[in-house]
Please model this.
Amino acid sequence: MSEAFRIGTRRRLAVEPWLRALLFAAALATLAYMSVAVIVAGWNGAVTLPVTAATLLFAAATYLASHLLRVARLALIAANDRVSLRRLGAIHLFTAGAGLAIPFKLGDVYRAVELSAAVGGAVRAVTIIFVERMLDVGLILLLLLLAIASGPARAADYGPVLTASSAFVVLAVFAVALLPDNLRRLAGFIIRRYDGSWTVAALRRITEARAVVHGAALMIGGRYAPLIALTMLIWMLELLSMGIVMVGASADVAPLGTLISFLSAVIRGDTLLDNLPPSAAFRRIPEAMGYLVATQVPLVFAALLAGIGLFRSRIESVATLGRKVGV
Model:
């Protein structure tokens, strides 16, 4: 691993402890609120499902299994022996669940905040998330091509996924192929032409940006096969969970197309609370509501439990530090 990447990943972007604690409390409170909202919606009969409870449980178990594989992939990408798999799993579930309340997949910003404290800094956390999304977008584009090839598609169903995925691919290609050399040129230009107090901060940000791009290649290098295999299994399980709901509902719609439609709704900004009771998009495809209840609802409760576990560990860490300082 190059020295530049070591320096870049060790340096932390300024996430103050009080701000991180505030964000954690807000995420935990949001998960508690969503859990209560889901229970109230079910109790009041606001959600009508076309499948049985057994089908929902089967689909939920399949979907949660995909998240266990996501934890394994996260551990493989991070490759940090100092972070336990249990802690990575708790962080993944907690941030994935909290992200259900944040539109446009912006929950990854908070995911970077939580990961930064575990994996050695914000630069490394951003790099890990960048690698995760590259793998996911590759599989999503493949699924999208299969969905288009299998039948007619509506622009409203597939358009957001195609647009967002294509934009990410363009951004990734630009970052990998063009950004490093241009950032190096920019750093040289700043060093030659300017000598102000701001130049140190600017050069530091340039170094961190180069570390993200270079670090992504280092994280993937030599692990293409297991990472691709895990990503394929992850999305196979997600598609299988949708198929279980479709079969249980005796639906005359393709699971793959419905999954893409569901992803499009998420990209358009729909959150879990927006879909309780069902939004207009899910009224047209009621089986998608069954998929939501079988996947996002269990994830909320799993995330809440993970958050409580993280909260307890932080309290214990503070108590232990207090005893050491007292000694």
